[in-house]
UniProtKB/TrEMBL annotation, chain A:
This is ABC transporter permease. It is found in: Cell membrane. Residues 15-25 have a biased composition (Gly residues). It is a multi-pass membrane protein.
TrEMBL record, chain B:
Residues 18-253, 257-514 form the ABC transporter domain. One of its GO terms (molecular function) is ATP binding. Keywords: ATP-binding, Nucleotide-binding, Repeat, Transport. Pfam families: ABC_tran. The keyword Transferase does not apply. This is Sugar ABC transporter ATP-binding protein. Transmembrane segments: none annotated. The keyword Cell membrane does not apply. It comes from the Bacteria.
From TrEMBL, chain C:
Pfam families: BPD_transp_2. The lineage of its organism: Bacteria, Bacillati, Actinomycetota, Actinomycetes, Propionibacteriales. It is found in: Cell membrane. This is ABC transporter permease. InterPro entries: ABC_transp_permease. It comes from Nocardioides oceani. PANTHER family: ABC TRANSPORTER PERMEASE PROTEIN YPHD-RELATED-RELATED, INNER MEMBRANE ABC TRANSPORTER PERMEASE PROTEIN YJFF. Keywords: Cell membrane, Membrane, Transmembrane, Transmembrane helix. The chain crosses the membrane at residues 31-48, 60-78, 85-101, 107-129, 136-154, 180-198, 229-249.
Length: 338, 529, 335
């Protein structure tokens, strides 16, 4: 399955997206486009292969499992972020929302794990709703609206949580650490969420409308699209997914630390989305690319750790990769403009 | 004072100031210009005409340093020049005024005029001196604008004047005006023309590009016609008839053009039964004051008026895109909730907006997705889109409107203006409207597409659609509409039956109460057709 | 000789009213933070005896001075229509470099951080201006890079460099002139220069023009690329200098500083009435924004019963209220 963009066409009407052939454009342009679409997958593949040969014990269920468990929350948050970026928005509040959801869990664990999870998710929805209203209805710029929420919500999370609280409720503990047939719940949930979001973007009216709004908001408005509703929904989804990631993270670590949890997650999520080939200028959502982007960043960090390269260098490497990835995307933009 | 003085040698009036010799330019293998010779003399206003894709804009971009030619040369004041950037051409004394005002809206008028060349004292900008010089310049041009006002608060016309003043302040030898009048009111156009003539009389060479053919005869001394990237004709404007001009642009026979009339519109349409659209007392704050409008099925009603008269506002308010203070809109006898686009769409109203780029296309989406945009919910079941239904719809419309695209999946941004317009028309027709509001449907598209769109409007009316047509072109209104409603300052001034109407009669109606004003609207000299 | 075509008799009255309303809206937009600031200060002075004390006010001013440096650079960046997410990390990096450098002399403590931070700004500026990459992403990478460099220098954050006892470098932020601490004086001087540069130099004109309409600035022959590069260099230098100041103030290179500070700086700029779309704003407004944020922190500390977590809740809420207000006002303005 090649990556899909929501701007993509009906299945079967062209040779799907990506693969060579189909397009009758000039060679260089096509290549650049191909790299942009699939560069992240190629990079991921190369890095995987390199690790298979160069890293001891890389090919073990333990290692792979750990990597997937670690990347799962990032994937979940990044999917919401991809939708938001598709509307030409950005959501800086996701990290704080994770902390908020996690902080709510110990407070409501008395209602059982399901009750606590529901409360946590509702927390995320409420913040998403606020962001959506500020952006979609009031018309505040997404970066400012979600920045304000990020600051305020982190404060609220701290007020609720205060200090680190451990989570002992068996249901939650097994959510964080259990598995089905060797596949951890956390990974399973991320996979299901990915599939759902992918289907929504590709097949639903909402997904099509979202992409059109990101592409030209005014035109979408005049075409009678429910712009406000779509925008609000998108931020709510982002909040919901962030809350879900926060709960999973808290369940896995069996503790809720509202000061630290989800910190800089907004940046990781944005990085995953951008590396996956979704332009910040909106109008496109690349779900598989986003997942691959998150996996790639995770694998880079892991590779550096396997080889005892410190955190500092890892960050510097990440910085370079982000720039390189965006540069490749831009190459396409330039080719098209001329 | 300014360095521009020294760069080019003086050119006597009547001698060539800016020339291209055999200029060639290709884009990824496609020839945009092929050995084009063009000559602008000092002290003339020279118009460049051609269909979209004829190479006008490419030529202008070569002249102004945006593009470097692949072959041939550009000569300025007799010397071969190689402009690498727009700034190079500008420093040499070639100023360009674009359709969209390219100034900084949040800075003052004076700051805009002198941006980058501000008078200074002790290394800092001398605001007092700057404002004083700006005022002098404006007085010289006969423009009454407060130079300390924020540019963005001025009307478009005034902004265009500021752009001209800026061109003047750098002592330009050449001023290139690319569609400067397309968003101006006619009185503003007059001022612009007066200033342009003033510049010509001082020995400046001006290049003027406009889609409004009438203006050419009023303003220009000579004309150069391009077609398919090649030079076709250069000659005095006064000795070129409108018919010749159009036939040379199109490369068609003169008789063929004459046979078709000035537009592709056919005969008038029958009016039958109950009105499809009834608008009464439509009121929009500061814009419309009680506009009434009735359109029958199968009827094309033209909406005429000068810029600012409330034409676009009327259709936007009917469509719900502009909030009405009061007034009623009903479609096929049913009242429509005003102020809601979705309500209007649901009642069978569609609006083809004037601004194709900003309000119409979603550039990165495919032709297919653009056509289906407004009917997505109808193409879906339980929130899931049916690709098959969309394919059928898109296929129908691409054939019916003869949309030229490599495939339905081509991005709309890659299409020509005319085809983009057809995509938008398809988008609206897909909503199966009973009332179609068309705001300048043929503006800025090439002559061929224009004719097709005109014929299509006819066809739609034949099929019983109620059409409201806004156009700045007299011919289009007179030949295309069955009735013409003339707006003035936000209210209906006159209603004319267009059966035996001539362009000049419509013009008189448009001029309305200001017929006494000698500067009033567009002249009649150009109405050859 | 008039370019306006509307009949003066019919259209002038409502237009004048409209213009007045627009002017009022624009005034509130630009001075809204100042009004809130005045109210908060007035209420705080009345409510808490300790607030208006000289010591407390000086404390607020000094505490605000570090953020002020970052926010000044951010103001210019935002006015060009860009954003600089790297300043928090660059700020921290500057502090660590300065503390390390002070062990080798006061001059090194100044030159080294400014050189390194300036270089980071230069690279970011070049990539943004020449490469045409989005500022958001480039400076996001800059954030990671500067933080990574900092960790590298401080043994993954384990080492905290100390400014040597008796080093004259400590004077920079701990000394005072006529009772006014140096950092406060520095901020006043820097902001005055900032205002002058913005409104009275051709660089400033370019900044405003680029933010207003970049294509227009380009077509007018303004040095767009150079202006952008300069702006990101200036932003990084100011952030680095803020780091130098805080190293001097705390006598050490604190490695965990500056996380999220870029967002605080953006908040201050937005509160100060600078539009995130670029093209308009004042450096004075930014100063007010910085002070407002600092006063809120201080007031919440004064209320003994309140948790310090309320700081972020209140700051975030005020930011949201102000932008919501701005939004409604721009609507009035446009009408």
């Amino acid at each position: 399955m090649s990556d899909s963009t929501a701007t993509a066409t009906a299945p079967g009407s062209t040779g799907s997206t990506g693969g060579p052939g189909g397009s009758g454009r000039s060679g260089t342009r096509f290549d650049v486009d191909w790299v942009r679409r699939n560069g992240v997958f190629v990079a991921l593949g190369v890095l995987l292969l390199a690790n298979v040969f160069l890293t001891d014990n890389f090919v073990s269920t333990g290692t792979l499992r750990l990597q997937l468990v670690q990347v799962a929350p990032v994937v979940i948050v990044a999917l919401g972020m991809a939708l938001v970026i598709g509307t030409e928005g950005i959501d800086l509040s996701v990290g704080a929302v994770m902390a908020l959801a996690a902080a709510l869990i110990p407070l409501y664990v008395g209602y059982g794990s399901v009750g606590a999870i529901v409360v946590g998710l509702v927390g995320g929805v409420v913040v998403g709703l606020l962001a959506g209203v500020l952006v979609g209805v009031v018309g505040v710029q997404p970066i400012v609206a979600t920045l304000g929420l990020m600051v305020a919500v982190r404060g609220v999370a701290n007020l609720f949580g205060g200090e680190i609280k451990s989570i002992r409720e068996p249901g939650l503990v097994s959510l964080g650490t259990g598995d089905v047939a060797g596949v951890p719940y956390v990974v399973l949930i991320a996979a299901v969420v990915s599939l759902v979001v992918w289907l929504v973007v590709r097949r639903s009216t909402y997904g099509r409308q979202l992409v059109a709004i990101g592409g030209n908001k005014l035109a979408a408005q005049l075409a009678g699209l429910p712009v406000r509703r779509v925008l609000v929904t998108t931020y709510v989804v982002s909040g919901l997914l962030a809350a879900m990631a926060g709960i999973l993270l808290a369940a896995r670590s069996q503790a809720s630390d509202p000061t630290k949890l989800g910190q800089l997650m907004e940046l990781s999520a944005i990085t995953a989305v951008v590396i996956g080939g979704t332009p910040l200028s909106g109008g496109q959502v690349r779900i598989l690319g986003t997942i691959a982007g998150a996996l790639l960043m995770q694998l880079i960090t892991a590779t550096l750790i396997f080889h005892d390269i410190p955190d500092s260098t890892a960050q510097i490497v990440q910085a370079v990769i982000v720039i390189a990835a965006v540069y490749v995307q831009l190459g396409r933009g330039k080719a098209r403009r001329s | 004072m300014t360095p521009q003085h020294t760069t080019a040698a003086a050119v006597a009036v009547g001698d060539p100031v800016l020339q291209t010799v055999g200029v060639t330019k290709s884009f990824s293998g496609v020839r945009a210009l092929e050995g084009v010779d063009f000559e602008l003399r000092a002290g003339e206003i020279h118009t460049l005409v051609g269909e979209n894709g004829a190479g006008k804009s490419t030529l202008i971009k070569v002249l102004t340093g945006v593009y470097t030619p692949d072959g041939g040369e550009v000569r300025y004041a007799g010397e071969t020049v190689h402009f690498r950037r727009p700034a190079d051409a500008q420093h040499a004394g070639i100023s360009t005024i674009y359709q969209e005002v390219n100034l900084v809206p949040l800075l003052s008028v004076a700051r805009n005029i002198f941006l980058g060349r501000e008078p200074r004292r002790f290394g800092l900008i001398d605001v007092g001196a700057m404002n004083k010089r700006a005022r002098e310049l404006m007085a010289e041009l006969g423009i009454d604008i407060d130079v300390t006002a924020e540019l963005g608060r001025l009307g478009l016309g005034s902004q265009q004047m500021v752009a001209l003043a800026r061109a003047m302040s750098v002592d330009s030898r050449v001023v290139i005006m690319d569609e400067p009048t397309s968003s101006l009111e006619s009185a503003e156009v007059e001022t612009l023309f007066r200033v342009a003539r003033g510049l010509r009389d001082r020995g400046v060479g001006l290049v003027f590009v406009s889609h409004r053919l009438d203006e050419l005869w009023e303003l220009c001394d000579r004309v150069t016609i391009l077609r398919d990237g090649q030079w076709v004709h250069t000659g005095p404007m006064a000795q070129t008839t409108r018919l010749e001009l159009v036939s040379k642009m199109l490369g068609r026979d003169v008789d063929e053009v004459r046979a078709g009339g000035a537009t592709e519109f056919g005969a008038s349409h029958r009016q039958s039964g109950e009105p499809a659209l009834v608008v009464s007392g439509l009121d929009v704050a500061n814009r419309l004051h009680g506009v009434d409008l009735t359109v029958h099925p199968g009827e094309v009603v033209g909406l005429a008026g000068l810029l600012g008269s409330g034409r676009s506002e009327t259709v936007k308010a009917v469509y719900g895109a502009l909030k009405a203070r009061s007034g009623e809109v009903s479609v096929a006898g049913r009242k429509v909730r005003t102020g809601s686009v979705r309500g209007a769409l649901a009642s069978g109203v569609a609006l083809l907006s004037e601004d194709r780029k900003a309000e119409g296309i979603v550039p990165d989406l495919s032709v297919r997705d653009n056509i289906a945009l407004a009917v997505l919910p109808r193409m879906s079941r339980a929130g899931v889109v049916s690709e098959a239904r969309i394919d059928a719809l898109v296929d129908t419309f691409m054939k019916r409107l003869r949309i030229k695209a490599s495939s339905p999946d081509q991005k709309v941004r890659e299409l020509s203006g005319g085809n983009q317009q057809k995509v938008l028309i398809a988008r609206w027709l897909a909503t199966e409207p009973t009332v179609f509001l068309l705001d300048e449907p043929t503006r800025g598209i090439d002559v061929g597409a224009k004719a097709e769109v005109q014929a299509l409007i006819d066809e739609l009316a034949e099929q019983g659609l109620a059409v409201v047509l806004i156009s700045s072109e007299m011919d289009e209104l007179v030949e295309g509409a069955d009735r013409i409603v003339v707006l003035h300052d936000g209210h209906v001034q006159a209603e004319l039956d267009s059966t035996d109407l001539s362009s000049s009669e419509l013009l008189a109606a448009l001029a309305g109460d200001r017929a006494a004003d000698p500067q009033a609207p567009i002249e009649t000299e150009g109405q050859h057709a | 000789m008039s370019t306006t075509t509307a009949d003066p008799a019919t259209s002038n009255a409502p237009e004048a009213a409209l213009a007045n309303r627009a002017r009022f809206a624009s005034l509130v937009q630009r001075q809204g933070a100042l009004a809130i600031f005045v109210v908060v200060v007035a209420v705080a002075s009345v409510s808490f005896d300790t607030f208006a004390s000289r010591g407390n006010l000086t404390g607020i001013a000094v505490q605000a001075s570090f953020l002020a440096m970052l926010a000044l650079g951010m103001t210019f960046v935002i006015m060009t229509g860009g954003i600089d997410l790297s300043v928090g990390s660059v700020f921290a990096l500057g502090g660590v470099l300065a503390a390390w450098g002070s062990q080798h002399g006061t001059l090194v403590a100044f030159v080294l951080p400014l050189a390194v931070c300036g270089a980071i700004g230069l690279v970011q500026g070049l990539v943004i201006a020449r490469g045409g990459l989005p500022p958001f992403i480039v400076t996001l990478a800059g954030l990671l890079f500067a933080r990574g460099l900092l960790l590298l220098l401080s043994d993954e954050g384990a080492t905290t460099y100390k400014v040597p006892r008796g080093s004259s470098f400590r004077e920079l932020a701990q000394g005072e002139l006529l009772g006014v601490p140096y950092p406060v004086i520095l901020v006043v001087v820097f902001f005055a220069i900032g205002a002058l540069v913005l409104h009275r130099t051709s660089y400033g004109a370019s900044v405003l023009a680029i933010g207003g309409q970049e294509d227009a600035a380009d077509l007018m022959g303004l040095p767009v690329q150079r202006t952008k590069v300069l702006t990101y260099v200036a932003s990084a230098l100011l952030a680095g200098f803020g780091g130098v100041m805080i190293a001097s103030y705390t006598s050490s290179g604190v490695t965990i500083l500056g996380v999220g500070t870029e967002l605080e700086a953006i908040a201050a700029v937005v509160l100060g009435g600078t539009l995130l779309t670029g093209g308009a704003g004042t450096v004075l407004g930014t100063l007010v924004g910085v002070l407002l944020l600092q006063v809120i922190k201080n007031v919440i500390n004064q209320v003994g019963s309140l948790d310090s977590d309320w700081q972020s809740v209140v700051s975030g809420t005020i930011l949201l209220l102000v932008v919501t207000l701005q939004r409604f006002l721009t609507r009035v303005e446009r009408r």
